[in-house]
Design a protein that fits this description.
The protein is of the alpha/beta class and 248 residues long. The protein has helices at 15-31, 48-54, 57-60, 86-98, 114-129, 190-194, 209-216, 222-225, and strands spanning 8-12, 37-41, 68-72, 74-76, 141-146, 171-174, 185-188, 196-203, 231-237. Strands 1-9-8-5-2-3 form a 6-stranded parallel sheet. A 3-stranded antiparallel sheet has the order 4-7-6. The structure holds 6-phosphogluconic acid. Residues 42-46, 74, 76, 86, 147-149, 153-156 line the site of 6-phosphogluconic acid (6PG).
Length: 248
């Protein structure tokens, strides 16, 4: 099944409102599932405020930590202690204080190559999912968080890179990044990321305005091709809104 074409655009005032809207959507996904929950986090700076909010009493006390599993959509090939490591950032801000370590699923960065890391993470995801093939009726993730880079990349899927068209594999190695930090990456593919009930993009600040104008212009950028089989939602603050914004 093709991913749904429809996207919802939600605009909010500022980064504080954006983090709160994202946290509330994350809680709604948690509340909607009484069984095991899988959330795929993202790296970069955009989700930091959201992660900090999840650590506050208002949210952390409502999260059933024993039932929520935390994954990451892409990783930079640096050791876990490196500040550039995406999962380390999430761990430091909120996960390590509240989530059981067996529920935190980082992409391994100690493998011999990004491809080997990717294979190991694909095996871990398939074991968690309980099958080698994704079924539309049973999404891999409840929620996938995403960001958009200045070149239109999302996760570590860069424009015109082979990862963009990967239809079979769930995770691939990316030997060279298109933007800083220029370290090899490992990324979930659009195929794996699409298998979710909701894909939630966060874009805030004036720096995102130019790329959002291109996204809304319909360019076939990775961030434009990333769609959930369920809901795809873009949360955008006023500063990031292109002048001609009319939603979709
Ligand atoms: C990464 C990210 C990447 C990020 C975008 C946006 O590893 O860098 O996962 O896809 O989401 O580059 O980054 P910012 O939020 O820092 O703008």
């Amino acid at each position: 099944m093709a991913a749904a074409d429809h996207r919802q655009w939600i605009t909010v005032g500022d980064t504080g409102a954006l983090a709160k809207a994202a946290a509330d959507r994350l809680m709604a996904r948690i509340d909607a599932n009484e069984a095991r929950i899988a959330i795929c986090l993202t790296g970069g700076s955009s989700p930091k405020q959201l992660y900090a909010l999840l650590a506050t009493e208002a949210y952390r006390d409502r999260i059933p930590w024993d039932r929520v599993h935390w994954f990451i959509g892409d990783e930079r090939c640096v050791p876990p202690a490196d500040p550039l490591n995406n999962m380390a950032m999430a761990r430091k801000i909120f996960l390590d204080a509240y989530a059981p370590s067996s529920n935190i699923h980082p992409i391994p960065t100690d493998a011999a190559s990004p491809d080997e890391s990717a294979e190991r993470y694909a095996r871990a995801l398939k074991s968690f999912y309980g099958a080698d093939r994704l079924e539309d009726a049973r999404p891999l993730f409840d929620l996938v968080l995403m960001g958009v880079g200045p070149d239109g990349h999302t996760a570590s899927i860069f424009p015109d890179y082979p990862a963009l068209n990967e239809a079979e594999r769930w995770v691939v190695g990316v030997p060279k990044a298109n933007v800083e930090p220029f370290v090899p990456r490992v990324t979930l593919t659009l195929t794996a990321l699409a298998s979710c009930r909701e894909m939630l993009f966060e874009a805030a600040g004036h720096d995102k305005r130019a790329i959002l104008a291109r996204v809304l212009g319909g360019e076939p950028l990775p961030a434009n091709r990333a769609r959930s089989h369920g809901e795809t939602v873009w949360l955008v603050d006023q500063a990031a809104l292109p002048e001609n914004f009319r939603g979709e």
